[in-house]
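Worked Example 4.2. Consider the chain below.
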Amino acid sequence: MNESASAPATLYKRAFDHPETRAAWEKEQGATKRRLRVWYSLYALALVYRGRDAIVSLKRIRRVLEQHPWESIPAAHRATGVKEVMGVPVRLRYLEGEELTGLLSARKPTRRRYWPEALESGPWYAGEVRLEADHGVRGFGVLAVPGEDELLEVPGSARVRRRRG
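Applying the procedure from the previous section yields the following structure tokens:
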């Protein structure tokens, strides 16, 4: 039998001086540190992924802005009743009196669900959009509010889910 196990814990001036108590504490500390390392690693990977995603998004936005001029469009409306997987579901109107487009997705490189209300009236749009035979909308563009420093990329399609009422 272990000598320290047979010795009463009260013989020690401090409970932490008891060898088995200290061993139990060190074991818990090691397990806690290992768990924290795993969580910190997962968090760091998520940050790297989000950062890489934002950089790729900015490159796409730059490509569009280098190839297309700004055009003032009458409206960009946030779609209601649907949820977009990768951003904010929107419908654009390119010409006054024209029908709104099908569902598109708009997102900022750093904040996917961000929607500046000023886009509802008179945004700028750079890019291309074309209607497909299946009445889908394809293309890629960039939305901006005149005079503000916010750019939202608009991929030509959206992956949406209807919200349950």
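The chain has two domains: 15-65, 71-162. The two ends are 68 Å apart (CA to CA). Compare this with Example 4.1 before moving on.
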